[in-house]
Structure to design on (770 residues):
């Protein structure tokens, strides 16, 4: 019988399979505890890939190792093995149960993992049985006390993870935020709840009436207000509604806030949501978590002390096994203490600690995490304040992804508005990418030449060797099939990477980030606060996309501001309106401004336009409620643009301004929809008509008026998308660096501008406004 695996390799595997998996499991735990906290600060794809692989391999490696240890206990020892070696490996089984409990910094990689809490609970029982089997198989074992202590520690850690997953599941959130009935029998309960709410607010040093203090809140008070709103508004995470009392106090609070304080409250609240959904923080700050962590850490330290001070026998265990065991003890204890050191200064801990004596110290510490702004000139030479908080102190990424349709259609390099940061890195990456493309094109051309000469030479050889022996003919034919083999390998590699069809998707090089500027946030939050002065239109905000158009009578733009442009907003599908205004905004933006007076509105429109197009095309889950047939419309518009640019010989010009001039040079004397019908969803020339109408308005009313109007349109598009975005996708974005749309959605909910309000509460508020 043929040997499939060489005996040397098999011997190495038999000797090191368990040891290798134990070391792998320990390494994965280290990676998770160190890098998992970074994912809420950046959407970096390499970090996401590392954490995804580590999260999946963590459970697999631990389970596989426990299975091998259980199998190893039934084997007969080899003559050269130490007598107690299998008994030491039995000690590793509860260590792996400790690893299955996972680090405190990540319990779930995605929200779907929280829904599997019952599976993890069953896994706890099965792993406990597996560990007990290993221990029983190893008896009599002089290390049984140490194994028992580790078994207790591992069970507690696994229980913590299961409870954290349960508390973060959507069913738990819905069950814990059940609304009190409006019936009279529940009136007493509601009054008691309101009284408790007042008492909770009294614990804060300053009341909600901020006008007496000019809205000047300390860092600690901002954090505690965020934590309070997080507890009151948990139901927002699962699209639940809440009472008018909660909405009223929230609206009163946020309507008086300064824009920067509001941003700090919102980012702290979103941070609490992230920790509640993806980490063990909510468990560790409960009495159950305190008990389990005390027992777990105490058992682990006690087991290490007993193991270290036990009577030693030099021939009892392998030297490598002793080193691995000590490494697991020391690294495990270090990781536990590191987790505690991460939890103590966390926002959650500082929000629940109530010792007035240390409040100044806590406030000073939180001051290190405050928002930092840096003055930076944009491409037009105007100075702006951009968010520049140090990476390790950030609570979210603090940037807006940008994607521009016209730049993509002519393959133009994206020009950043605020592009000083990372310029050298981007240039180096472009140089590498350019070199890679040149190499690919060179080999492609070389292969074409070789294929031609190979075919000619093959035909010549066939004519010559017809009379040769068959064996020589077979050998020659074999050598001529080698190029076809390499061609097959090349196609196998390039097809999944889509190297030969880069236009079939949006490459990452056409997406870039812009830092959040203070002016952008001020304009958004100021507009939201101004909506409170127009309550008679609030009920319209709940209109869903596709019912009668995304803004059928719901827009807060004045009719005189639209100047006859309502047909591009009212009774129009959201995705179509977004594409129209995106292309029209870019066409107008490429014209040099006549002055710097309207620069803020112009830059705001450009940033939000590209940001919303990025969300529509690259975040389809987040925009699923309003996207409609956005991708079909994008595809048809792109096809029409490429056809038009090819006809004008500028398809690869990489010049947006040239493309803009050619588009606007086309006369559009009719509605493109009447000409195309349902054959195409393209909006290219309809957007050109909109841009021309905006130019006419600019001639009549001035450039500043046009950009103010366009910026308000983009605010309405952003607000509608935020109000109707998918709840699950919103929460998933918190683990990928966060998005501006999350802040807009939460601000709208706190200001009472969303649709998360019970019908009875809406009627009450409507009567109050009247």
């Amino acid at each position: 019988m043929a040997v499939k695996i060489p005996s040397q390799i098999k011997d190495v595997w038999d000797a090191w399979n368990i040891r290798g998996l134990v070391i792998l499991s320990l390494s994965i735990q280290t990676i998770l505890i160190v890098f998992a906290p970074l994912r809420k600060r950046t959407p970096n794809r390499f970090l996401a890939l590392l954490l995804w692989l580590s999260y999946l391999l963590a459970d697999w490696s631990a389970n596989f190792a426990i299975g091998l240890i259980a199998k190893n206990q039934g084997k007969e020892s080899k003559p050269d093995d130490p007598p107690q070696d299998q008994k030491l490996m039995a000690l590793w089984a509860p260590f792996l149960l400790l690893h299955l409990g996972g680090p405190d910094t990540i319990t779930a990689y995605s929200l779907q993992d929280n829904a599997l809490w019952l599976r993890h609970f069953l896994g706890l029982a099965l792993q406990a049985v597996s560990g007990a089997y290993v221990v029983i198989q190893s008896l009599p074992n002089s290390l049984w006390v140490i194994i028992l202590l580790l078994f207790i520690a591992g069970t507690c850690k696994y229980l913590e993870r299961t409870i954290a997953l349960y508390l973060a599941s959507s069913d738990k959130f819905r069950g814990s935020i059940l609304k009190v009935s409006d019936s009279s029998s529940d009136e007493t309960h509601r009054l008691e709840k309101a009284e408790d709410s007042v008492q909770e607010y009294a614990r804060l040093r300053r009341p909600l009436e901020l006008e007496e203090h000019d809205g000047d809140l300390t860092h600690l008070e901002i954090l505690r207000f965020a934590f309070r709103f997080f507890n009151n508004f948990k139901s927002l995470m699962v699209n639940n509604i809440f009472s008018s009392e909660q909405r009223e106090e929230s609206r009163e609070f946020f309507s008086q806030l300064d824009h920067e304080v509001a941003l700090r409250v919102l980012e702290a609240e979103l941070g609490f949501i992230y920790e509640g959904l993806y980490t063990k923080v909510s468990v560790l700050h409960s009495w159950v978590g305190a008990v389990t962590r005390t027992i777990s850490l105490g058992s682990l330290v006690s087991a290490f002390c007993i193991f270290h001070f036990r009577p030693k026998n030099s021939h009892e265990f392998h030297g490598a096994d002793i080193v691995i065991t000590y490494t697991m003890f020391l690294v495990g204890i270090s990781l536990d203490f590191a987790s505690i050191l991460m939890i103590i200064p966390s926002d959650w801990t500082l929000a629940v600690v109530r010792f007035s004596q240390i409040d100044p110290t806590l406030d000073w510490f939180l001051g290190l995490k405050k928002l930092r702004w840096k003055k930076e000139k944009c491409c037009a030479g105007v100075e702006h304040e951009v968010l520049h908080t140090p990476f390790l102190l950030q609570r979210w990424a603090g940037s807006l992804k940008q994607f521009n349709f016209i730049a993509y259609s002519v393959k133009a390099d994206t020009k950043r508005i605020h592009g000083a940061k990372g310029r050298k890195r981007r240039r180096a990456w472009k140089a590498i990418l350019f070199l890679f493309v040149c190499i690919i094109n060179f080999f492609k051309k070389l292969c074409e030449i070789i294929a031609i000469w190979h075919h000619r030479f093959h035909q010549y050889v066939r004519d010559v060797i017809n009379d040769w022996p068959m064996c020589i003919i077979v050998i020659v034919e074999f050598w001529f099939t080698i190029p076809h083999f390499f061609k097959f390998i090349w196609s196998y590699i390039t097809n999944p990477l889509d190297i030969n069809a880069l236009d079939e998707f949006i490459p990452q090089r056409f997406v870039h980030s812009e830092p959040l500027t203070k002016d952008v946030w001020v304009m958004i939050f100021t507009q939201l606060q101004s909506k409170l002065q127009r309550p008679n239109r609030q009920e319209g905000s709940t209109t869903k996309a596709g019912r009668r158009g995304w803004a059928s009578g719901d827009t807060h733009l004045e009719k005189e501001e639209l100047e006859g442009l309502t047909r591009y907003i009212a009774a129009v599908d959201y995705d179509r309106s977004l594409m129209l205004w995106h292309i029209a905004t870019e066409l107008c933006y490429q014209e040099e401004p006549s002055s710097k007076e309207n620069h803020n509105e112009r830059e705001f429109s450009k940033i939000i336009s590209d940001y919303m197009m990025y969300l529509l095309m690259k975040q389809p889950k987040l925009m699923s409620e309003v996207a409609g047939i956005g991708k079909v419309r994008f595809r048809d518009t792109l096809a029409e643009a490429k056809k038009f640019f090819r006809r004008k010989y500028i398809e690869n010009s990489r010049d947006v301004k040239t493309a803009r001039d050619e588009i606007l040079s086309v006369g559009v004397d009719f509605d493109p929809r009447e000409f195309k019908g349902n054959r195409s969803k393209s909006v290219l020339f309809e957007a050109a008509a909109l841009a021309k109408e905006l130019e006419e308005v600019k001639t009549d009313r001035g450039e500043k008026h046009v950009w103010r109007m366009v910026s308000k349109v983009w605010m309405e598009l952003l607000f509608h998308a935020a109000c109707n975005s998918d709840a699950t996708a919103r929460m998933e974005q918190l683990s990928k660096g966060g998005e501006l749309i999350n802040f807009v959605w939460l601000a709208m909910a706190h200001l009472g501008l969303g649709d998360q309000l019970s019908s009875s509460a809406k009627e009450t508020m409507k009567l109050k406004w009247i």
